[in-house]
Structures
1.
Amino acid sequence: MDIIEQIGLFLQSAVQTGTPILFAIVGGILCEKVGHMNLGVEGMMLMGAALGFTVACATGNPLLAMLAAGGAGAAGALIYAFITVTLRGNQVVTGLVLTIFGTGVSGLIGSFVSDKQIPQTVREAFSPMEIPLLSDIPILGDALFSQDIYVWLGLIIAILAYFYLNKTKLGLYVRAIGENPGAADASGINVTMHKYINILIGGFLCGLGGAYLSTAFLTTWQDNVTAGAGWIAVALIIFSTWNPLKAIFAAYLFGMLRGLNYKMQGWEIQIPSQLLTMLPYIATIVVLIFIAMRKKKENQPPKALGESYFREER
Amino acid sequence: MSRISISKRKRSASAVADVLIRIGAIVGALLFIGIVLAIMGYDPINVYGKIIQTPFKRFGGVMNYTIMLTTLSLGIAIAFRMKFWNIGAEGQFYMGAFGAAAVALSMGDLPPIVLLPLMFIAGFICGGIWAVIPALIKAKFQASETLVTLMMNYIAIAFISYLQYGPWKDPAALGAAKVPNFSENAVLPEVLGVHSGWIIMLVLVVIMTIVLKYTKFGYQVDVIGESETTAKYAGMNTVKIMIIAVIISGGLCGLAGFMQASAVEKSITDSMSAGLGFTAVITAWLAKLKPPVILVASFGFSILLQSGNSLQLMKIPSSITEIMQGVIIFFVLASEFFINYKITWHGKNSGAKEAA
């Protein structure tokens, strides 16, 4: 294998590793943009993974599996939204509980399908497709044009989310709510509705990300299949400074880091893999400090992040 | 036209109503789970029976969890009272375990009376340092402590993992990546069948109750939690108080790490917390950040955690207990609303009727 091909394959797997996390980052960004910090990402991903896997086995229909996975994530998000938006509960606690709950639900569902296998139809639907001609381009051909449907979907969703947040009127509402829900409310924006919609879409995306791990990467059920991917996503939301386009970069970069981790075991230079594991988190702290110092407006966390909004009677 | 309006309560609901609402929520959650279990074909009475028996049959196991959860929650509580959202208990726990292990592995020959206190101090200091880093970052750059403490967790776990697979790997373990066992001197002795961490835990509960309730420092912490501006106007050195409180917060979490490493693991591993650093956030919150209540809440949660194992023997997936934890807290979270808010229903022609 020549070096060009190797680089191509390396990038191909990096993009695949990054894709489930990309879904979760974009989902998390939507949620945080309306001012809600959701630490339940891991739980929603696991719920999506389990239900997606179950439906894939039961129906053999890849589309249904994806919808079920997204639906499971959105169901988790609905609990979160009801408690934090309608009942104004504590976001940190609700998110953490959602992760525990989601882990439990996924373990329970998983215990029923532990002997099942992903049917051939689903496996084929989620396997990489080579796009004629484009996939022959060196490096990029493997990295981008020989990918499965999830990779494409992830990219498209991230780009759509960027336009939604930054170029549409709805996005303007969302950002206004995240910055100052009181002012948004006063100007006639339906704060509660927008919060629900974005949190639910966010949950849907997290569920999809989880299902990518359970239905496209594996053929049999594995407990706790996300293995912390949701927490990495929480970190990378910040790393990408709440920007879905940078999220693509963050997710793939993380995928490369993971890949490097495996590759290096065969190399001469030995950097302990755990130190590489730390890197995204250290980088995230550095980014946090950096954006706090520079005070550049578009990179800041949503101002009302983590605060419940309560409209006083007038 | 009839209309429901919601307003913040001027004063919070009475203490009795508060407790009743919470207990009602927990009972409601248990009923709900019971119905779900029945629908799924399990006998809910049998399941609950097993769970209730757990503290009698597996008291040691329940207490191990209780000691960890209580100590971690105490640490979290002092930070949360100040509205410093320390969700880095997990990382502070691991660093505390690391500090204790560093002492135990390098000075294992010292007699227990010297060695254990040294481990105790090392655990406290390392946990405190790990917590003070986000506090300093917050004080200097105003970066959100919620996010930084969360990141610090993963850095700590990766660090322990690095030690376990790298420099601290036990050459005698035949290829298995494992930190060597501590010497006998570094193991907390058992008292009345449970490792003596329970005494430390009880003492800590008492100390924290006194500190938070009856000292000037505890009062200052609460004032900062109420309003940092007020605290500044009152002439408090808010940064200094915050730093001290955060060191105590991380230190306590570090102590939990020391106790788990010394008494239960007799070594350290990169999975020894079993995620309890996050569960402790929940128990601390459930107990309204009050030390004596934390003890009760932690004990209750520990029963659930421990009973997962006994349920598995009945061919009931242990994940049920995770779902139960989730549902119970969801119910309590929801009930909180009725404690903090007043729901008024304006009828068609009548005046306001109170519904909660």
Note: Residues 59-314 of chain B form a domain with the ABC transporter involved in vitamin B12 uptake, BtuC fold (CATH 1.10.3470).
2.
Amino acid sequence: MSSVEPPLIASPGFMGSLRKYLRIFRVSLVERLAYRADFLLGTVLRFLPLVTSVLLWSAVYRGSGNDTIEGYTCRQVIAYLLLVHVSRMFSSMPGLASGIARDIREGTVKRYLVQPLDLQAHLLAYRAAHKFAYIVTSALPYGLLFWLMGGYFDWPREPWIWAAWLASLILGFFLGFLMEFVLGLLGFWFLEISSFLYLVNTVSFFLSGHLMPLDLFGGRMAMVLKELPFQYLAYFPATVILGRETPGAVMNGLLVEIAWCLVFLVVGRVALRLGLRRFSAFGG
Amino acid sequence: MSQGSQKGGAGPAIEVSHLCRTYKVAQKKAGLLASLRGLWKGETRTVEAVRDVSFRIDPGEMVAFLGPNGAGKTTTLKMLAGLVYPTSGTARVLGYLPWEREDSFRRQFSLVMGQKNQLWWDLPAADSFELHREIYSLERARFDSTLGELVELFGVDKLTRQPVRELSLGERMKMELIASLLHEPKVLLLDEPTIGLDVVAQGTIQRCLREYNLRKRATIILTSHYMRDVEALCSRVLMIVHGALQYDGQLSGLLDRFGRSKLVRLHFEETVPHGLERFGECKVNGPVAELKLEKSQIAQVLSSVVDLPGLVDLSVQDPPLEDVVAMAFGSGAGKP
């Protein structure tokens, strides 16, 4: 035994761990770039529904005979719908929950039990890389789009609004990730969650304000929706940059968003621990 | 408490005592009505996957788990890897309780179970290896030299820059094994490492595992259905049938214990004479007859056949290992 070399146990510590996940970020980025063509096409296709939205809302306003609905002019609604795309660019997590559920069902999740690697931190690094690649490559087409449709926008001059917008977008990424992560963990308890995920996605389309500004739901409904975490995935960042919120309201919104992130972080950690325990109890 | 008295010390690499594992499996009767009832209240049945298994393995040993499908080999491996909790009994691997999954334990072992485990499908294996370096926090210089050695050992020099999805099954398995060896594990648990591979690839993997075992004094447990693997690699076998340990010892001992018969080949000048059936089971193929005999009969039968007219050659052989193992599995099945 004495002839055996000492094991390579270097305790990595916090910086070491951070480096580990940054490395994962880098490799994920390389992987993502392997799919360049898919990328570009995906971005362009995303614009198509916008055209219908513009036509639809113009018709709605013409039909109603009013210049504003719940405080929004037609121009503002269209600007909002464009900006919601930017929000979703950060907060949407396609395939995250279903991927986790699939890993659980197929047993590949065992990798995180056998290796010194954390499932959540690994996926976060992976997602961050994908988002980064996505946002960088779609900056050009989006820039072009916003320039073409410049007539719909009154961009704010205050730097704090731009800073708050950026903060709300980045927080939206984290909240979107943490919420979707919790959903995926349901796979530990249910064999098949795809129809459930479909339902949640559909409902979230309304609740997040992806379909239209939450204010347009009117009165009490709008009030309730603004208490839910979904609004931070689409609605909130868009209203910030539209300049519809007072500095106090924006600050408050960001703090509540951070609180939601913490809530879902804790729920996710607890669920992950319980889920892995259940996984081991059921036979890996 | 989990800090075993001999963690990383000079004790056995693996020590298992009275390990048991039961599963509850859903029972569903056929038919729509039964399915609907199952939605309401599922019936379960208890299966004893592993029953009171005890053994110890010293550092540097290479041991094979033998047993028919569903015998409990994989469940035992999973418990040793910390993937599954035992129902009762205990196991220590390198002094650790595996299911506590301490990082310092996880840095010292590897589990290879099937493919597509650790490699990124669309990236070259080299990228996955880099990632491994980070996951296990390996020093650059040592990682580079280990990787260099392994790539040379497995003979995959030109393949590490090619996307994994374009590799053949055998090449992928080699990459998978390299990935699992990069952190120089002291204990290696392999579930069917050569399944589906051709003889050449099987041979390479056998050679590499033996080499790794020698170089690092690593302890290796493998399950395999290929007796060729077992013969080439492991002097010791543990046979598990119906969750219970049926045999623990040398491979040759298994032959002595279960290989009660011998094969006597008689080669005649022209045709095989009639009447050989009286000695035992007889297969005739042209001028060659094969007699399957109990060991105790051999001497007596040989003395009577040597004088048969036209006999040109005679040999006594052990039956194929596969047959012996199949017989051993069958005998284990008799004892529940």
Note: Chain B touches chain A through 47 residues (CB under 8 Å).
